[in-house]
Protein 1
Amino acid sequence: MGKVTKEHINKLTDYLWEIPKTFREDMRVPARILVSEKNLDHIIEDRSLNQLVNVTTLPGIRKAALVMPDVHEGYGFPIGGVAATAYPHGAISPGGIGYDINCGVRLLTSKLNKEDVEDHLEPLSKELYTQVPSGMGKGGQIRLFAAQMDKVLSTGAEWCVQQGYAAEEELKYIESHGKLKWADPKCVSQMAKNRGFDQLGTIGSGNHFVEVSFVDEIYDREAANAFGLHKNQIVVMVHTGSRGLGHQVATDHIRIMVTAMRNYDITLPDRELACVPFSSEEGKNYFKAMCAAANYAWCNRQMISWEIRNAWETVFGEKGGQLKLMYDIAHNIAKIEAHTVKAGQEKVIVHRKGATRSFGPGFKELPKEYLNIGQPVIIPGSMGTCSYVMAGAAKSHDLTFGSCCHGAGRQLSRRAAKKSVNAPLLKQQLRERGIFIEAGSFRGIAEEAPIAYKDVNRVVDTVHSSGIAKKVAQLKPLAVIKG
């Protein structure tokens, strides 16, 4: 199978490119790339476009397989990939969701401005590092018993409300209100549950973080007002997922599917795309387990918010006010949704792996103050660069199954970053720029250095210019807590 080159790619618009079905005999639909021409050459360098072509071979895939401008290669699916398969008999593939099920982002807003916190950044960063456990395998303050674990897996963020860690009002500011109803704890292995018993309220390692930022630019005042954002305002971002529990769910069900595929006469060009019909016993069991892991992740981010609020109060007391949840959104998940395919709308299973839902105005799940604006989309950059708040747009429904990018996207592997970066020096340089870093190791700092990532400004500008989401605000970091 030949490598995709620029000669194989047709330009549809300034920001949309297509590898036609004729590229390979086994392609069921075209492969489409949302990117500017300037950044297309860089995407071609790795295996991500060949992985995208492989995705087009999934049974029941509809319309096209897509990647966002932050695309890079991953397990099976490229990261930044979107694929929709026919419901209920099309394929479901764990590789299209990823190992960190419901890795996602939430943003908390404050009443404080940049000048209010500048003299408190060091104690705030240290208190956050103390309150929010981080690092590989690190446990948290909560230890769940078996019955409690099943409740978390079934009810998601609702569990935090029931236990007094969150207000019920917050649930409407979470995608799917923090709970997928199809979750079934019985489909989650005991090994997966064991890995999650002590990890609620922890961020883990890798690219996960808690970040204190300020609003540096406002691009859309109406949307910013609706989201409760204003210039120089302090906000706190959380990026993490379902931890070891979600990883084990993926491992367990990929193993099952690799064996089960032959029962359904499924042959694929890459075993990492292992899949089964959604309607099969194996497919339904995976989806129920994935939903349970997604619920765990929403509960995890809600618990982290409780810890952040404790740290906030410790440092600022009453003058700090309350941290309000603006929104929480997943970027590694599969959802059953209705989208326009050919003649009209049909139900599809949308796989988003490193891609964020970006539904436009009028989406009924949104809180009323966001209804005329569109769904908030939170796009983190790297610890030394900016991040963005965007609003979903109607065009995304037609173009990308209601999806957009999820971040800057890696351009260096973790190994390459470690070789290239002097972590102590980077920490010092960031400190000189007014950014405090608290991390469990210099390795974590090196792996997540700004040079390891693409230019988030170009990624977001592509998304904005393509019309699938619009820029609302730019955020810049002041303190970053990592594993």
Protein 2
Amino acid sequence: MTALSVSVIIVSHGRPDALCVALTAVGQLGYSNFEIVVVADSAGVSAVRAHALADQIKIVSFDTPNISAARNAGVAVAAGEIIAFIDDDAVPEPSWLVHLTTPFADAAVSAAGGYVVGRNGISFQWKARTVDPDAQTKALQLSSDAPEVFTGTPDCAIKTEGTNMAVRRDVIMALGGFDPAFQFYLDETDLNMRLGRAGHRTAIVPRARVHHGYAASGRRRFDRVPTDLRQIGASLAVYLRKHGGSLGVLDAERDVQRKRLLTHMVAGRLLPSDVAPVLVGFDRGCADGMQRDFGEIATDMAPPPFRKFNQLERPLRFVVGRIWQKNRLLAKAARLVQAEDRVAVIILSPTALFHRVRFVEAGYWLWTGGQFGKADRSGPWLQIWRLRMRAENIIKNFAHGR
């Protein structure tokens, strides 16, 4: 059976280096029928054109700092039956697209969302959630790691994350795409609410995993300290107006953001004089959002032909060894990547250090930690393993989406 055609859209603004890393990881996906669409500003476009995969990518130049409008520009040229979204500061695990698209074998499934992993490569930023007209989320309990399908409602939508989600192309076009009134923040949540209002079914896929780095931007520093809350306030105001939420949520969110800023100040990451101007930005954003018009895109656009990516057909290769072999193992991994292999390096020390996972710029996955340390942060502090058995357990889980 032929795999569904998928367009993977990466939107990028002001982060050309991160974009190149994300693009390298997407190019290593273990899926047989996808194309890559990059929507980027001038710096990002230049970086993509210099990338080794450039001749296989649909490139859309887009300088306006509006993530919804940029995603719509990507949708306009995406020819896949399914459109998947990932951010420029994120990388997908090799099996991501295989898992994320599996629920679409059921024609009744309109959208799907996976889990998002944080900077340590182990802990989750976001799992399964619902969201309501007040933009409040609640955990959604799943019975296992198998995909589960839910039907949203106007009062309780199924939440997906913009950096790890997929939607049928005909569905997103019928819904009018992303609303450009959401220049940043809640853009995908607004789409979730519209999917719920229309009674569409959304699958949550725990094993479809993306690692999200929270890279610095014009709105936050590398340590996640916010520097500009205008679009947070604006998008929240738009969302509450559009979906009938309580405007009192704006005051509650302002208090949340104030406490957040004060926490950073106490920790020495912000000066006391920095707090008030950032909060003023939130207030001005709220006022702006109360005036913004809602929008949508045309639904009759015909995209250019599907540009199938030449997938790396070789299986994911694992390079395993001890910490004192690190230089040799990394050199071997680099050679394998140059030979167009997909590679994961596992380097363990005879300790109980916590495990960490990341995709490095050289183009391979790097898993580090102690032979006796915990990978699952909810597990015991000390775990007795033989090196070979520990490595085999990691390989089994990582190769299949854990």
